[in-house]
């Protein structure tokens, strides 16, 4: 959530940023925020004046009674009563303005950093780096869903029987490959200084609002209506909410957490060839990195996270590219975001496997996640997160890019985790 201070002191810059994200009615929304804030602040100022007047007048009533000036005392009582009635109306006006202001701020996205490129969608994202190993496949190379069937690794039809489309069942070496990747990613994160968290996979609405999934992404989340709980779309939600309503000491920062969870996304409206097999699921495994940091250090933290994810892809021997997302393709909450994609040689297309974002103070303002600096001044933290990594498309690329006439080769870094170097 944008701060009132940012909007009031940098109004035109905020409007330009919102327009870069193609947020409709940016100028009108900002104007309404300032109007409601003025209304709330004016009401508060008048309430403070009324309270001071009530206190001063109340002190004179007793003295007037002692001096036998009963009529003047009664007049003063009447004056106090009238001021209190006015204050009740002012309090109601202030509360309504504050509520409207809060609800409006929830609907306004984060402002992108200056280096975020202009653009409407994925076609306008900027490739900043490419790397990894080139792949040469046999002429009869298969997509991963055919490989999964051939080697009995993943049963998509069984998942449909048990639950529905988008809920695959991993079997045998397929299940072991999943577990190997999870442990590999967690060990790499631990070696990089991240503390592992095992959070719940359902959260309350307050947590959804804290990280910005609500009210923006209700349609993408599974809602347990009886208990008003939500299945998490990513471990970002429960892990970042650990720091909701918390004041940290600057010496504790940066905080570095990682978590493996199952993730759940409705992905309403997804269909066609691009969602076949593991390309887009409703339930999937992911290891997430979360950082809480100071404003001065958060950009360095962001770069360290990017380097970490790139290092994983290098160890998995996958061809990859890194994209800086344009304003129109960024998430509601991000100030800047880089996507990592791996190339699927069999499908001849790039598959997104990670988004690494810096949210500046946007989430922290919603969460009231703050820290005390060396001068004991309380400031908003910066929050960051990134996938390291999401498993489905990594598995798809590993299966497709490593297929040989003898079977599917396992990258050397994974062999200690799988216990086998070839799927046959």
Outline the fold blueprint.
Elements: H1 4-9, H2 11-20, H3 26-66, H4 70-106, E1 126-131, H5 144-150, E2 154-155, H6 156-162, E3 169-170, H7 172-191, E4 195-197, E5 202-204, H8 205-211, E6 223-224, E7 229-231, H9 236-240, E8 247-249, E9 255-264, E10 283-293, H10 298-315, E11 320-324, E12 336-344, E13 349-358, H11 362-367, E14 370-372, E15 378-380, E16 382-390, H12 391-401, E17 403-404, E18 407-409, H13 415-418, E19 422-423
Parallel strand pairs: 4-9, 8-14
Antiparallel strand pairs: 1-11, 2-3, 5-7, 6-7, 9-10, 10-16, 11-12, 12-13, 13-16, 14-15, 17-18, 18-19
Helix pairs in contact: 3-4, 5-12
| Strand segment tally | 19
- What is the count of DSSP helices, taking H or I runs of 4+ residues? 13
Sheet/helix structural class? alpha+beta
**In which order are the strands of the major sheet placed?**
1-11-12-13-16-10-9-4
Mean pLDDT: 95
Shape: elongated
Question: What's the quaternary structure here?
Answer: single chain
Distance between the termini: 51 Å
Q: Into which percentage range does the β-strand content fall?
A: 15-25%
**Major sheet: size, sense and barrel closure?**
8 strands, mixed
Please mark out the parts with pLDDT under 50 across 5 or more consecutive residues, or reply none.
Answer: none
Question: Radius of gyration in whole Å, from Cα?
Answer: 28 Å
Helix content: 40-55%
């Amino acid at each position: 959530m944008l701060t009132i201070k940012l909007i009031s002191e940098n109004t035109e810059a905020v409007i330009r940023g919102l327009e870069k994200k193609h947020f409709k009615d940016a100028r009108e929304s900002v104007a309404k925020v300032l109007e409601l804030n003025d209304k709330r602040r004016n009401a508060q100022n008048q309430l403070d004046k009324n309270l001071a007047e009530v206190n001063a007048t109340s002190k004179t009533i007793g003295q007037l009674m002692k001096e036998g000036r009963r009529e003047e005392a009664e007049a003063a009582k009447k004056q106090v009563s009238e001021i209190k009635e006015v204050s009740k109306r002012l309090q109601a006006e202030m509360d309504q303005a504050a509520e409207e202001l809060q609800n409006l701020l929830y609907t306004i996205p984060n402002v992108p950093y200056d280096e975020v490129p202009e653009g409407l969608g994925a076609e306008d994202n900027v490739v900043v780096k490419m790397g990894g190993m080139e792949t040469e496949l046999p002429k009869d190379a298969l997509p991963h869903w055919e490989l999964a069937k051939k080697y009995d690794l993943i049963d998509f039809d069984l998942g449909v029987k048990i639950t529905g489309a988008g809920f695959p069942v991993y079997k045998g070496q397929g299940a072991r490959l999943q577990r190997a990747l999870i442990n590999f990613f967690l060990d790499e994160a631990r070696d990089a200084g991240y503390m592992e968290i095992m959070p719940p996979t359902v959260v309350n609405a307050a947590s959804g609002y804290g990280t910005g999934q609500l009210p923006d992404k209700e349609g993408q989340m599974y809602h347990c209506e009886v208990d008003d709980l939500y299945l998490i779309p990513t471990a970002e939600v429960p892990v970042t909410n650990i720091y909701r309503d918390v004041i940290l000491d600057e010496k504790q920062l940066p905080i570095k957490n990682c978590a493996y969870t199952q993730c759940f996304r409705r992905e309403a409206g997804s269909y066609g060839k691009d969602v076949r097999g593991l390309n887009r699921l409703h339930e999937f495994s992911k290891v997430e990195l979360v950082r809480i940091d100071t404003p001065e250090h958060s950009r360095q933290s962001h770069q360290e996270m990017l380097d970490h994810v790139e290092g994983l892809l290098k160890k998995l021997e996958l061809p990859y590219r890194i994209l800086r997302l344009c304003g129109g393709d960024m998430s509601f909450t991000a100030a800047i975001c880089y996507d990592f994609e791996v190339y699927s040689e069999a499908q001849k297309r790039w598959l997104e496997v990670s988004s690494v974002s810096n949210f500046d103070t946007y989430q922290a303002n919603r969460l009231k996640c703050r820290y005390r600096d060396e001068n004991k001044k309380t400031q908003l933290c910066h929050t960051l997160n990134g996938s390291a990594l999401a498993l489905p498309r990594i598995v798809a690329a590993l299966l497709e890019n490593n297929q040989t006439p003898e079977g599917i080769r396992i990258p050397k870094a994974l062999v200690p985790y799988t216990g086998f170097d070839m799927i046959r």
